[in-house]
Amino acid sequence: MIATVHPSALSGSIRAPRSKSDMQRACAAALLHKGETLIHHPGRSNDDRAALDVIQKLGATVLNEHDVIRVQSKGVVPLTHEVHCGESGLGIRMFTPIAALSNHTLVISGSGSLVNRPMNFFDEIFPQLGISIRSHDGKLPLEIAGPLVPKNIQVDGSLSSQFLTGLLMAYAASGAHNVYIDVIGLKSKPYIDLTLRVMQSFGMKVPLVEGYKRFFFDDHSVPESPAQINYSVEGDWSGAAFLCVAGAIAGPIQIQGMQPDSVQADKKILDAIRDAGAALDLEQGTYRVGPATLQPFEFDATECPDLFPPLVALAAYCNGVSRITGANRLTHKESNRALTLQQEFGKMGVNIELHGDIMSVHGGGQLNGADVHSHHDHRIAMACAVAALRANGTIRIDVAEAVGKSYPDFYRHLNQLGAAVEETH
C-alpha cells in the first residue's frame, strides 16, 4: 500500500491507541492466571492479535466482546505443536520462557524481521533452567521442551529487556522462591517497571528489585489471586508520541486517553516536546500540543529507543542541530532504524549524521516532497507521515501498511485531525 500525505494543518481531538506493550503483557498474565480475566479497552494492533493467538495455542480460551476480551485459562497447557508470534519482538522474547513452563516439545516461530533477529539468549540461558533448546544458529525457529526449573542465573540485559520480562513472568508462575536473576547492563528499565506493574495487578509474585541488577524471588508466598481479574489497557505513549510531534509541527491538537502517571518509557516524548519549545499542557486528562518556533534539543533515548523515529521528525523542524543518544539500540529493530532514518529523511532533504551512539539531526530547512519507503517498519512509516505535514510537497510512503503492527488507525486518525492522506492499494 502507498500512503500519500499532503502538507496539512491539524486541529481537533483524537484518542490515542491502546498500548501494545501493556496489552501483550496483559495477555501473558491472563494465560498464567488460573481463572477468568477481563481485559478492558484492549489493543487491536497486529502484535496484539498475535499475542491473543499465542495464548490460545498455549491453552487459553479467548472471547472477543464489545470493548472487552474475556480470557479463561488453566495455565500453560499447549494445544498445538507450533506457536507463531507474528512479527512481535516482545511476543517471541516474552512468550518463549512462558511456553517452556510446559513439558511439551514446542516450535516457537515468527515472521518478517523476527527471522533475522538474534535469539542466542535462549541458547545460553535455557539449558541452565532444565529446558532443552535447538535453534538455527541463534535464529528462529526455536524448538524447546521444558519444564522450566527456576535457578540462580545471570543474564545480559544490554540487547533488550524483553527477555527478562518473559523470565520474570515464568519464574513467578513456576512458584520460584529463594532464587534470583542477576542482570548485567539492563536497558529500557521503564519496560521492566511496566512488567512488574502488570504482574502485581494480576496477583503474581513480584520479585524484590535491587538496583535493577538483581531480581530476587524470596520465600514469601502470595495470596491466592481472585477467580476473576479485571484489567484495563493503558493508552500507548509510543503511538501518542507521533501525535505529539504532529501537534508540535502542524497543530494544535488534543490527545485523549493517556495516563500522566504511566511508567511507559515513551512518555519521555513530553520532555522533548517541552525542550523544543512547543506548546504543551495537560487539562482534565487531555494533552494539548501546539506549534511554536522550535529549537534544537538534546535527548537520551537509551531507555526508550522506539522514540527515535518521532524524535527525528520533530528535530527536522527545529532550527539547528538536535542530538539524540542511544543510536546503538536501533540495530535489531524492524529495520536498522539508524540507517533507515538517515536514508529516508535524507530523501526529504534532512541531513542526519551518525557518530557512534549519537545521532545528529540538522533541522530547520524546508523538507522536500519525496517518495520514501517504510522498510516494513511501522515507526518509520509514521515518522515519514508526520514529517510530511509541513513539507513543501507531497510525501509518498511505500509499504505504508506497516503501521498495522502497532497503530492500525494511524492514517484514519490523521485524516480526522484534518490531514490530507490518501491510501492506494
Care to describe what's here?
The protein has 2 domains: 2-16 and 235-424, UDP-n-acetylglucosamine1-carboxyvinyl-transferase, Chain; 20-218 and 227-232, Enolpyruvate transferase domain (UDP-n-acetylglucosamine1-carboxyvinyl-transferase, Chain). It contains 12 helices and 24 strands. The chain has helices spanning 20-32, 46-57, 89-99, 120-125, 162-173, 189-201, 237-250, 269-275, 308-315, 337-347, 378-387, 410-416, and strands at residues 2-6, 13-15, 35-40, 61-64, 68-73, 82-84, 105-109, 132-136, 139-145, 153-156, 179-184, 208-210, 214-217, 228-232, 253-256, 279-283, 286-290, 298-300, 321-325, 351-355, 358-362, 370-373, 395-398, 420-424. A 4-stranded mixed β-sheet has the order 22-23-1-24. A 4-stranded mixed β-sheet has the order 2-15-17-16. Strands 4-5-3-14 form a 4-stranded mixed β-sheet, with helices on one face. Helix 1 packs parallel to helix 3 (89-99). It starts with a strand and ends with a strand. The model has no long low-confidence stretch (mean pLDDT 95).
In total, the number of strands is: 24
Low-confidence stretches: none
CATH architecture level-2 label of the largest domain: Alpha-beta prism
Q: What distance lies between the first and last C-alpha atoms, to the nearest angstrom?
A: 5 Å
Short description:
With 425 residues, the protein is of the alpha/beta class. 29% of the residues lie in helices and 26% in strands.
